[in-house]
Amino acid sequence: MSLDLAFMQQIFPDMLGAFWLSVQISLITVVLSVILGILLTAARMLGGTLTKYVIISFVEFTRGAPPLVHISIIYFLIPEFGIVFNEFWTGVIALSLIGAGYSVEIFRGAIDAISSSQLDASKALGFTQVQSFRLVLLPQAYRLSLPPLTNELANVIKATSLLSVISVNELTKVANDLIFVHFVVIEVIIQLTALYLIIVGCLMFLSKYLEARLKF
Amino acid sequence: MEQMPRLLPGLIITIELSLIGFLIATILGVPLGVFRAYNPPIIFTFIIDLYVFVVRGTPILVQIYAAYFLLPLMGIKLSPFWIGIVALTFNSAGYQIEIARAAILSIDNGQYEGAFSLGLGKMRTLLSIILPQAFLRMLPPMANEMSNLIKASSVLSVITVFELHKAANAIISDTFKFLEMLFAQAVLYVVFVVLMTQLSIYLEKRIGTRLQIKNFSQR
Hints:
The complex is a heterodimer. Chain A contains 8 helices and no strands. Chain A is mainly alpha-helical. Chain A has one domain (5-214): MetI-like (MetI-like fold, Orthogonal Bundle). In chain A, helix 1 packs across helix 4, helix 1 (5-46) packs antiparallel against helix 6 and helix 1 (5-46) crosses helix 8. Chain A is elongated, with a radius of gyration of 21 Å. Chain B is mostly helical. Chain B has a single domain (7-218), classed as MetI-like (MetI-like fold). Chain B contains 8 helices and no strands. In chain B, helix 7 runs antiparallel to helix 8 (178-218). The longest helix of chain B is centred in the last third of the chain and has 41 residues, at 178-218. The termini of chain B are far apart. The model of chain B has no long low-confidence stretch (mean pLDDT 88). The A-B interface holds A 1, 60-61, 63-70, 72-73, 76-77, 80, 154, 158-162, 164-165, 172, 175-176, 179, 185-186, 189, 192-193, 196-197, 200-201 and B 53-54, 56-62, 65-66, 69-70, 73, 147, 150-155, 157-158, 165, 169, 178-179, 182-183, 185-186, 189-190, 193-194.
């Protein structure tokens, strides 16, 4: 098995373009899912029984079914309501919802881990519920949830590869097309693997850095 | 709804894929993870760490494509079902190495000291003191891994394995009832995943009580 380096150079611009698209999807998704996760967690902690059960069933649904199924559901469901997004935004919405479902669980776990005396203390100091959530619980939960959150965000980034099935031209789709056009496999797969390792490696590096900075 | 029986063969293949894949991955991954936990020579450490990094850093879809395209190039011809098993095993073994390693490392050092001071050998300590406790700690993350594997098996539809997602898609292209079929398969996946998680909680409780009773009676 010898590698065709000239061919690897030839396909590299195509792969780089797709890499950029994958990075864009990943970044938007990561930001949206964290924001949505925080909002849903807050709603779950502060809202009534109905809100709580709606959110719990949402979380169970995102955690229980495969991302491929969620992507298909959103891909087919949103046009039913007469709202038409392109594939890119369909993918981003699907992945953000999945990411949000997982982050709700992570944030809840982190908040549960903070002792309830913190809440009592903030109540005694006259904080409102929203204030104690925002000023007392969230900053502490942020530190605790960083390692599992990074894991989850890495999963979401890897799930962007699934968007190839709804014809988003991201990394895996382009690589797959290249394989079928040129009938060259190893060179494409090596580049594909390396590019994904770069994205996920960056995320892990960032999380190590943040974790080191946030140490108590 | 009358199409439900047509989903069953797909469901069975999904169950087979995830159970077989998980079993082989456990047989490969857990010993490797235990081995890795005891700081083997640098060359083994490096190889295992590199393997884990690649598995955790690339999407399952890429791993499946790699297995699908590379295995025939190496002269290994398998049916899509078994290619799927190979890909799932490759993926899951990487995660299980980490789970086993973390479980071993979480066992307190005093356990080793106690065992050695009672005159147990190294192997004996590992087998009858450390591993039983580590297995108990492995259960919850293993249940997580199992549900990830079940969900990853849906991706095998892209290499034409006729599992649940593929079966549902086939019915959709027959009948155009996509919403019903998508929700039906989602429900089936959720039920399967919840069943496996409950099983792990049950096992955890059972093994946990048995360990405690044993400890108690020895006291």
